[in-house]
Target: Ribonuclease Z
Amino acid sequence: MRIKFLGTGGAFDVDYLNSAAMLAFRDECLLIDCGFTVYQTLVQKNLIHRVQYILLTHLHNDHSGSLANVLLHRSIVDRAAPPTILYPSEQFKNQIYEFLKIQVKDPDKYAEFMPLEEFDGIKAVDTYGQHSEGLQSYAYIFEEEDSRIVYSGDLGKPEVLFDRLSRMRSLPTCVYHDITFHTENTGHTYYKKLLPFMNGVEMFGYHCDPTQNPPDNPIRLVFYQKELLA
Ligand SMILES: [Zn+2]
Ligand SMILES: [Zn+2]
Model:
C-alpha cells in the first residue's frame, strides 16, 4: 500500500493544490478526491492513465471540481476504458450522478459505478454534517493484511473516526488528517484537537497552508514529506 499526494492545500491554498491522493492498494490504483486542480496535476505528471478507481470524500469543489475533466479526458483523449467510481451509499451515488449529469449528460458513458462494499478492504466512515452542516462527507479506512491507511477527508470533528479506529483490530496505522491552525475554522480539525489521538498511530496533517504551521505543532505535514508527494 503506497500513498502519493497530488496536492495538500485547503480550498483557497492554490499554491499547494487541492488535497487529493493516488493510492496503490491491492494491485489497483485509486484516486482519492478530484478537486479543481487535480485534472491538471494528473496530466502534467502523466498519471491520468493510471486511475482505475475514484473515491470521493465529499462534493465540495476542491474535492470534486475536475471529476468531469478526468472522465472526459479518459474517454476522448485516451480512448481508454472508463474508471470506476466507488460509492459508499446509494444516496451519495445519486449526488455524484446528478453532479456529473449536468456536465456530461450521460455519466454511465464515462464512468462505471460500483458499491464500495464490493471492493475488499476499504471501509467508509460516515461523517455527515461534521465538516459542513447538512453536507454528506466520508472518511475512508484502507486495510491490507499488515497495515492500515486512514484518510479523513474534510472533517471538523475527529471523534467519530478515532472511535471507529479504536474498535478495530490492532495494526500499524497511518492517519492522514485534515488540519487547521485557526480555532475559528470549525469545518476542519484544529491541530490541538488531534493531539489526544496521536498515541499508537503515525499521523500526518494535510489540507492547510504549511507556512502557517505553528512551531508547537508536533504533527508532521504531508507537504514536507517528499516521499508522500506524487
Ligand atoms: Zn476541502
Ligand atoms: Zn470541504
